[in-house]
Amino acid sequence: MSEQPIDRYRRRLLGGAIATGTLTLAPGIFLHRLAEAKPDAEPVRSIVRWGLLVDTTRCASDCTACVDACRDEHGWTGHGRPRSDAQWIRKVELHDKATGREVSLPMMCQHCAEPPCVDVCPTGASFKRADGIVLVDKHICIGCRYCMMACPYKARSFIHEDLTDQKPHSPRGKGTVESCTLCVHRIDAGQQPACVEACNRDGHGALLFGDLNDRNSAIHQALAEVPTTQVRADLGLDLGVRYQGL
Amino acid sequence: MRRLLTAPLLLLLALPATAAEGRAPVPQIGPAQGEQCVAPVEFMRRNHMELILHQRDETVHRGIRTKGQSLRNCINCHAVDAAGQPVSLDDPEHFCVSCHRYAAVRPDCFQCHSGEPEPGVPGVVGTGAWSQGLAATDHREVER
After folding, report:
1. How many beta-carbon contacts under 8 Å exist across A and B?
2. pTM above 0.90, yes or no
3. What does A58-71 look like in DSSP terms, one character per residue?
4. Which of A37, A133, B1, B105 is least enclosed, having the fewest CB within 10 Å?
């Protein structure tokens, strides 16, 4: 393949020729919408690192819009067995016993730069894409569930049942492990993850998605301005999902 | 494994002669949308599984989502009846099912993947020149 199309794409990406719709979230923080998709024929590149910033001060404890949107997008309906049902994203309520402060937040795959699930996978099914998204290649997953044990965030689930009527964009099957894909099919099409869209649609704006490496991206600027936390930062996994207001 | 897969297909390719004599049953393969497949029919009969396998790794690991060779594109064009309505995997006339059942091949694609076309998404059909190019180039690529 000639270098030309890749260079052209890179120039567009870096040169800011991407049409951006800008929305002011807070003074100095803007929401840019990625309006141009990656060309279908080009591989993802490590110049991009996708990430998510969760503003827990905007996350309402009674709201499950992100969880519902994820469930609809990927079709992981439960079987009434909470201990073993698939769960790509869940709401967690934190309660500080000393002060009584309550915090609500969504917890999902943190898309580590150094993912323990990838370290332990015996077949190479757990892998990190060049753009930082941690995925399971279900074609080579043998369902051993080592990754589920290794994940400090309890982010992965195992499919115990035969499935039918899967979503065309989200193949899922018995005997494999799965977790948040950061809606990789949507990202490759230039869209935002379903949870982010749902959160914005409901007016909470607690989820900010973007390229952590891009200095002009809203998420990069937000991370430069406000103090944020990586959950279990002591593990040194360099997470793609950051929390604000914890 | 490959030999297992190709043997029934070669048998299938030899069918027209047999069928003409009316001595053997032939699979009832339903119609597809569009004028022609992404590659010549003879090429696809022998190599569709290689194309899909190749594209699978490209898509999952490298994010390459060219539509022509994706399983979803196969389904979007082929898993429809003459009226353009979706055909279920339970239906023996489903494009993939009809032939695989005849050839006694059980692909495991549909344990995870949807076998029905996406509503409102037209399949990408082949154009003459590109199909020839695909057949010529990708055949070498997929020989492993």
Report:
1. 55
2. no
3. T--TT--HHHHHHH
4. B1
